[in-house]
Amino acid sequence: AGQPDLGDNPLDGPLDRVRVDDSGRMLTTNFGVPVADNQHSLKAGLRGPTLMEDFILREKLTHFDHERIPERVVHARGSAAHGYFESYDDLSAITRAALFGAPGKRTPVFVRFSTAVGERGSADTVRDVRGFAVKFYTEQGNWDLVGNNIPVFFIQDAMKFPDVVHALKPEPHHAMPQAQSAHDTYWDFASLSPEIAHMLLWQMSDRAIPRSYRTMQGFGVHTFRLVNARGASVFCKFHWTPLAGTHSLVWDEALRIAGADPDFHRRDLWEAIDSGQFPEWELGLQVFSEAQAARLPFDVLDATKLVPEELVPLRAVGKLVLNRNPDNFFAETEQVAFCAAHVVPGIDFSNDPLLQGRLHSYIDTQLTRLGGPNFHEIAINSPVAPIHNNQREGFHRQQINRGRVNYDPNSLAGGCPFQAGARGFVSVPEASQGNQVRGKPALFADHYSQARLFWISQAPVEQDHIVQAFRFELTRVQTPAVRKRVLALLASVDEVLVTRVAASLGMDVPAPLPPATDRPPHPYSPSSPLSLLSR
Ligand code: HEM
Which residues are named in the active-site annotation (predicted)? Predict the structure, then answer.
């Protein structure tokens, strides 16, 4: 009740202040001076040299020269749309996040889908994990749920993120291959990182070649917390389920489409929305207590594990509808800045060591990508909630803060922006104790059980596709020792899997790796079983 109808153009209000239609208007410079001739530069005589005085030419060229900004260091290739999220229920018993406060409540969203590895102009249908990033413009500020279409991740600790990305990206000496995982560096890294086993199975499955963004699941991946008004918290996993069903391509289709129409997913999303076939997803929550988490055979802080729905069922809590294409790719899709640290009161982080690293990285990279500390003022990033604080100045500042006082506490300005207290964001007062150490909990060391569960859960045709994907990728790996180590990793997952992949490559089946300990030796240390295999 009392909610504005956000059905059609959810961001019309906030974004309309910056939307401009230039058609049929008089041409001006960036400073509003009418331009008499946009075809010819100013010269000394018609054949003479061009004059420095030509501020109109210089402005036009200068602006053009600076039109590109750095692409995202990962997830550079993406497509986005506006829409809304509608809550089915009042979830205030478990979270004070206002967007879940009442049945039927609508919150505007901007959603960007992406591939993870390819460059900005790369093809859509490559084998890769897809990004599924949702920005909720809530009345308590922006919440970004920056997820993927695969529920687990390559690594367990943020310390390894630069390494896995370096290994996946084109090799640094010749910048090949573009947007493919089929090369030595990735498989070298994978074969030395047993924690990757579960992700590897998903990555070689049909899930890594979705039919379209509209038919893709999304996952928050990490365990998060929900917190209610009394400060009580529960663990939570976020799931997006496409109402059109989850569909994949087959590899031959994906390869052909990458050549014939590299924009296949971008075009599909655009055309669906343009023709009124609005894509929809349901948001599902897996909610569980710390006591339940403690009874699970894995650690919920480990992003290479999922929580099986047989153990903690999904509860559908709302619907996401995408109903408006962006007006301008650069202003919206390229400049949008998602950040795993953007949460609102009622949602909090867990101690997942991958998530903890993400809390730093997004704003850090955006300071470079979007040119300084004021990118929150770019229209697509601005909250609909008001902003009041003493953070000022810096490049490209838009807001004009009035008065002589920009510090806290003060008595001269009629008071500072007042602290919200209990209405504000309050971190869960989680007890924590321990010596400063590097390492990981013992349960993080089981890398194979869930990988095997995934393999045996697949239908025969899906298993065929996984074996064929390993074959396709590994036949492009030049270094025999790397292939051998990948097989040893697969032998640790499942005997049938490794036997079939080895047969497809004409190789022997190696022995499985010994069970990992909680602090495995570095792969290159003499005692490592992986290093033995590279001899
Ligand atoms: C984008 C870092 C793990 C999903 C990015 C970007 C960085 C980054 C620097 C570029 C952001 C920008 O330029 O705006 C990291 C680090 C990670 C990590 C350090 C681990 C320590 C993950 C995980 C997920 C994920 C586990 C999925 C749950 C995404 C998505 C984007 C992205 C979807 C694209 C957002 C967009 O559409 O603009 N990440 N990431 N990342 N990341 Fe991560």
Answer: 75, 148
Whether 512 and 492 have beta carbons less than 8 Å apart is answered as: yes
Nearest CA to ligand 1 atom 27: 147
Of how many residues is the chain composed? 535
How do residues 185-211 score in pLDDT, each as one tens digit?
999 999 999 999 999 999 999 999 999
Counting Cβ atoms within 10 Å, is residue 459 exposed (0-12), middle (13-18) or buried (19+)?
exposed
Average pLDDT, the chain: 93
Q: Given CA atoms 325, 333, 226, 96 in this order, what sign does their dihedral have?
A: negative
Tens digits of per-residue pLDDT, 95-153? 999 999 999 999 999 999 999 999 999 999 999 999 999 999 999 999 999 999 999 99
Q: Which amino acid is at 6?
A: L
> Which residue positions in the chain have pLDDT lower than 50?
1-6, 518-526, 528-535
Asked about 63 being catalytic, the answer comes back as no
Q: Kindly provide the b/e burial profile for residues 329-368, where b requires at least 16 CB atoms within 10 angstroms of the residue's own CB.
A: eebbbbbbbbbbebbbbbbbbbebbbbbbbeebbbebbee
ipTM of this complex = 0.96
Helix, coil or strand: residue 239: strand
Residue 178: the pLDDT is 78
pLDDT in tens, 434-473: 999 999 999 999 999 999 999 999 999 999 999 999 999 9
Task: Please name which of 497, 173, 113, 166 lies closest in space to residue 326, comparing C-alpha atoms.
Answer: 113
Q: Which residues are annotated as a binding site?
A: 72, 112, 161, 358, 362, 369
* Angle made by CA atoms 196, 201, 206, in degrees to the nearest 5: 140
Amino acid at 460: P
Q: Is 75 a catalytic residue?
A: yes
Cα 1 to averaged position of ligand 1 atoms, centre (Å) = 36
Q: 524, 466, 441: which is closest to 199 by C-alpha?
A: 466
Q: Kindly report the backbone phi and psi dihedral angles of residue 65, in degrees, each rounded to the nearest multiple of 5, phi listed first.
A: -60, -25
Say whether 166 sits in a helix, a strand or coil.
Answer: helix
pLDDT given at position 479: 95
Q: Which amino acid is at 502?
A: A
Assigned token pair, 215: 């038919």
User: In ligand 1, which atom is closest to the CA atom of 221?
Assistant: 28
